[in-house]
Amino acid sequence: MSPTPSQADGASLGVLETAALLRELTAGMIASDDFEQALDHLAQTSRHGLPGIAWSSVTLLRAGEPASVAGSDPWVKELDALQYGADGPGMTAIRQREIVVSEDLAVEPRWPRWSRVALARGVHSVLSAPVDIDDHVIGSINFYAPRPRALTRAQQMTAMLLAEHAALLLGAVRDRARQAALTAEIDEALAYGDVISQAIGVVMTQRRCAAAQALEVLRTAAEALSIPLPDVAERLVASVDRDRAE
């Protein structure tokens, strides 16, 4: 059966609202290379992403360990951090890799300690959607409502779309942040003088790699030998010069 005009208008409005939400999220993250700032933007944007939601947060694990928490309000970050020790919907979503919903925390048996704290803060229902950023960082976006049964099936679909879109954006932010850090390291290394730039060039030639990878090779050697980076560079350049002289 075809939808009535009013039903069609409602469906279109939902699509437009979702598109506007994703556009707002993208606009705040697309040019950022500050990962923590991007997380804060995600938490603040998610807060207004679903009708009936009053607060939101982002829980992250890096290499299996607690990494970051961002929240729309300071106390939400504290509530989210409690999950690391007492479990909660966000950690359950991360482990199961699927959306987790509790329609009424007053009768929720899965996270008794976390639920008591959440209820004391006025949270009565929650939705957590998993976020896969890359091979090393995974997490969840958590939506908190001040009344029971506030989360519909349509809202769950919107949360899933938001989580998938956010994962792509956060992955790009991490890539930019890593590149910016590598560039800063190269600039710092070059500030030591010509010897390090020469050593970087030697490694690039020998290993056919980029400058960032060549610098990492030198840093690794310095750590292994427990000597300063400039000394490693001097030894490498001197060794190449001797080989050429022979």
UniProtKB/TrEMBL annotation:
Keyword Isomerase: no
Gene3D superfamilies from the UniProt entry: 3.30.450.40, Winged helix-like DNA-binding domain superfamily/Winged helix DNA-binding domain (1.10.10.10)
GO function terms (MF aspect): RNA binding
SMART domains noted in UniProt: ANTAR, GAF
Membrane-traversing stretches: none
InterPro entries: ANTAR (IPR005561), GAF (IPR003018), GAF-like_dom_sf (IPR029016), GAF_ANTAR (IPR012074), WH-like_DNA-bd_sf (IPR036388)
Pfam assignment, any one: GAF_2
Alphabetical keyword list: Transcription, Transcription regulation
Residue ranges of domain ANTAR in the record: 176-237
Top-rank lineage group of the source organism: Bacteria
Name of the protein described by the UniProt record: GAF domain-containing protein
Source organism per UniProt: Micromonospora pattaloongensis
